[in-house]
Amino acid sequence: MPHRKKIIWRSPTGDVIACVEKNKVLQENLVEIRQVCQDAFEDAVLMGCDEQQIRAVFIELMNNLESAYPPQG
Fold first, then answer.
1. Distance between CA atoms of residues 9 and 15, nearest Å
2. How many CB atoms lie within 10 A of CB 34?
3. Which of 25, 49, 55, 61 would disulfide-bridge 44, Cβ 3.0–4.6 Å?
4. pLDDT digit string (tens) for 18-62?
């Protein structure tokens, strides 16, 4: 199931990211991320892992991502 909620992307200063191409890339990235996560989630469940633990590991992974770029805004 694709990501259905319309996201209004914002800059660090709160400005709306209005560029059509940027929004298209961001949406495509979300679709790809969701599919990779769904596949990994299903693999883990099929191998007998606890669903709540899988979700916790995914959340920890996301919370620990770091940008290679300096903060903007």
1. 8
2. 13
3. 49
4. 999 999 999 999 999 999 999 999 999 999 999 999 999 999 999
CA distance 72 to 62: 20
Residue type at 39 in one-letter notation: D
Q: Where are the chain's structural domains?
A: 1-65
Taking residue 46's Cβ as centre, other Cβ atoms within 10 Å add up to: 8
* CA dist list (Å): 59 to 17, 21, 45: 25, 28, 16
Token couple for 47: 């191998």
Q: What are phi and psi of 71, to 5 degrees?
A: -60, 145
Give the position of tokens 């996560």.
37
Identity of residue 25: V
